[in-house]
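Today's session is about reading a structure prediction critically. Students often jump straight to the picture, but the first step is always the sequence itself: look for stretches that repeat, for charged clusters, for runs of hydrophobic residues. Only then move on to the predicted structure, which in these notes is written as discrete structure tokens rather than atom positions. Here is the chain we will use throughout the hour.
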Amino acid sequence: MEDSEFFRIKQKMINLDPKKYWGDDFDVRFYLISKIKTIERKKILDLGGGIGIISSELERNNDRVNLDFSFNELKICNQKIDKNIQNICATITDIPFKNDAFDFVISSSVIQYARDYDITNEIVITENKINQYPSVEKSLSEMYRVLRPNGKLFLVTPNNAYYKSYMFSYKELKKALSNHFLNYSLSFFNPYPKLSQKHRKLNMANVIPKLKSKLTSKQRLLNSLIKKDKGHEKQSVSFYVEALKN
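Below is the predicted structure for this chain, in token form.
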């Protein structure tokens, strides 16, 4: 991703509504866009895509579908972002498409809400000391179902090792993915620690990338923030996953 592209995407959100901006110049979703922007002439489903920022960054010769539970978000997508995107109001646990419908599925910082729903409604299942979430399992099952054979899922979600709240732990996410995808890769995005919950200057996940951004391009910076899974939990702001349907 060229630096000019990054600033254009950022400005697009700020011009629309500053509250819609992801709030971090080093958000994993910028890395995700850099990975999918070269896809052409495919059918792509963006789950929980909201106002359609990610869908609108895909090449227009793709068949782009933006699915979200919020009708108002979808309305903004249609009226202010890109009227050529097909908007569908639905949930990720019940995707209203037939089997093998898409070449690619994108799940960008949305599956954690399925996890939160199960925690709120006290329907968490614990097996071998690892929590499992029925709504998460249903969502991943649906993602797998609508992918064509050899289709790919791109999934990003926050890492609880950084947030220390109600996000996925490393073991939870690995277990959920392995229940549905035999072939997937997991990476840690932005592995720098937050040394204090109160003092922003002690948040190395912000400070170090900001310093590095003065010395290198945006794409090289984003690439440097990716660390491959080596079989054990690692501090990071987010998880980045690519999974194939075999």
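Discussion point for the tutorial: The mean pLDDT is 95.
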